[in-house]
Amino acid sequence: MAMPMESPISFTNVGRIRWWQRGIFASQTGYVLLALAVLLVIMHFASPYFFTEGNMQNVAKNFSFIAIATLGVTFVIITGGIDLSVGSMMCFSAMITSMVMTELSAPGSPAGALFVHLAADGKTVIANVPGLILLISILAGLGVALIAGLVNGFCIAVLGLSPFVTTLGMLSIVRGLGYVVSNGRGSFPGGPDADRFYALTSGDVLGVPVPFIYLVILALTMAVVLHHTSFGRHVFALGGNEKAAELTGIPVVRVKIEVYVICALAAGLQGIIISGWLGSAPANMATSYELNVIAAAVIGGANLAGGIGGPLGAIVGCVLLEVIRNGLVLAQVSSYWQQTLVGVIIILAVLVDRIRSRMS
Amino acid sequence: MANADATPVLELTGIGKEFGAIRALHGVDMQVMPGEVVGLMGDNGAGKSTLVKIIAGNFRPSHGEIRFAGNAVHFNRPVDARAVGIEVVYQDLALSDNLTAAANVFLGRELKRRFGPIALLDHRAMAARALELFGELRSETRPDDLVKQMSGGQRQAVAIARTRLSNARLVMMDEPTAAISVRQVEQVLGLIHRLKEQGVAVMLISHRMPDVFAVCDRVIVMRRGEKRADKPIHQTSPEEVTALITGAKEAA
Question: What's the ipTM?
Answer without folding.
Answer: 0.80
